Amino acid sequence: MSEESTISSQKVDALYEQLDREAEASGYHLNPDEEFTRGLVEGLLTNEQRYGYRACPCRLATGEKQKDLDIICPCDYRDPDLVDWGACYCALYVSDEVLRGEREVQSIPERRPPEGQRPQDRPARAPERPGGESTLPVWRCRVCGYLCAREKPPGVCPICKAKQDRFERFW
Amino acid sequence: MTEATGSVQGSHNEHHVKFYGLSTCIWCKRTRQFLESQGVNFDFAYVDLFHGKEREELVAEIRRWNPATSFPTIVVDDAQCVVGYKPEQLKEALGL
Fold it and tell me: More exposed terminus of chain B, fewer Cβ within 10 Å: N or C?
């Protein structure tokens, strides 16, 4: 039925370790339930093989990158879900409380708005800026909220590692 | 390899149960394991393993019950639906 080849456990291990290292370095945490988390990492690799990018394993990707930008892991909804629910939608990432065992991870409601109302659907215009000296544009990472004033957004967010196409003009 | 669609036979066949999931989703996996552990008879479809028109039709079916078309979606007797990994809600809907 499926044209996919299986993902090797070495590949899963490698990505698991990389994501864990990057998460811990920037104040995020992977779900400590290793079996669960390895399953999600395998799903990310499956989606990368299918679509060419790591779409959320728990959401239906279209295969058109521009339409799926907000659900490329880490998704645009991870940080608010971590605050409200202690975990992101697929529960790859969890909060400090969950890590300390003070809160339980559960299946949470979908925060992603319907098509047409998603972050990538917003017009790419610069909002009104307050009077200031700098003429540099300010860019905002839609994943983690990181702001920087420079001509162009960075290739990779220094905080959450989201790619350049996840930045929007803030000022 | 996950089958895209099929049926699981179980001793609990009082209800018509349809399970819509994604093959990469661990909450879907847990939900299916729960249904199997409870001996529930159900049909399943992994929407990410379908393409084109077939996928669109499945998504339209799910949207009727769950406008967010999130996964897993479990439709019971074409009358009610449970979204997400919710063992207690499933027990209630299925009289387990």
Answer: N
